[in-house]
Amino acid sequence: MIQVxxxxxxxxxxxxxxxxxxxxxxxRARDVLQQLIRQHPEWENxxxxxxxxxxxxxxxxxxxxxxxDGDEVAFYPPVTGG
Length: 82
What we know:
This protein has helices at residues 8-14, 29-39, 44-47, and strands at residues 2-6, 18-21, 27-28, 53-56, 59-61, 66-67, 72-76. By secondary structure, the protein is an alpha+beta fold. The radius of gyration is 12 Å and the shape is globular. The model has no long low-confidence stretch (mean pLDDT 93).
């Protein structure tokens, strides 16, 4: 099982801060996204954004990076400062 977290405006769009997710391990961050969309088809538009960022265990990651059982996977939109 992994822990999935959502941050910033993505959390607001999904109305969800996070959830545990059972997914076959090892897998990739993009597989986690696809599993989330299968379980929550109404989230597809928000999760398919081309600029969606991912962190695995609090480290910036890429969609093809490996995810293992017990990992924390966070998704968030790009943030700009002012």
